[in-house]
């Protein structure tokens, strides 16, 4: 029974994450500046950059960066 409860928690977490994920891609000007500076210093070490921004995950930082600065070289 514990497995069933756990899986229902996972599905509720996934649906909540999906609905709030788009809004979390809105970064403040300070966050954008920090991401840019950190990227110039450490490159694509997203977890290191995310560690400097409370409430942000490495995946959010990487998704933001690639959606904003990806180049088609």
TrEMBL record:
Domain HTH myb-type: 27-73
CDD domains cross-referenced by the UniProt entry: SANT (cd00167)
Chief subcellular location: nucleus
TM ranges: none
Basic and acidic residues composition bias: residue spans: 1-27
GO biological process, one term: cell differentiation
One GO CC term, this protein: nucleus
InterPro entries, alphabetized: Homeodomain-like_sf, Myb_dom, Myb_TF_plants, SANT/Myb
One example GO MF annotation: transcription cis-regulatory region binding
Keywords: Developmental protein, DNA-binding, Nucleus, Transcription, Transcription regulation
Region span, Disordered: 1-28
Residue intervals of the Myb-like domain: 19-69
A family per Pfam: Myb_DNA-binding
Classification via SUPFAM superfamilies: Homeodomain-like
Nucleus listed as a keyword: yes
Domain of life: Eukaryota
Locations listed in the record: Nucleus
PANTHER family: TRANSCRIPTION FACTOR MYB51-LIKE ISOFORM X1 (PTHR47998), TRANSCRIPTION FACTOR TRY-LIKE (PTHR47998:SF3)
Protein name: MYB-like transcription factor ETC1
């Amino acid at each position: 029974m514990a497995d069933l409860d756990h899986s229902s928690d996972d599905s509720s977490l996934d649906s909540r994450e999906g609905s709030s994920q788009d809004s979390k891609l809105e970064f403040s000007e300070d966050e954008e500046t920090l991401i840019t500076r950190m990227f110039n210093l450490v490159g694509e070490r997203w977890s290191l950059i995310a560690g400097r921004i409370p409430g942000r995950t490495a995946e959010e930082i990487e998704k933001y960066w690639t959606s904003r600065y990806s180049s088609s070289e």
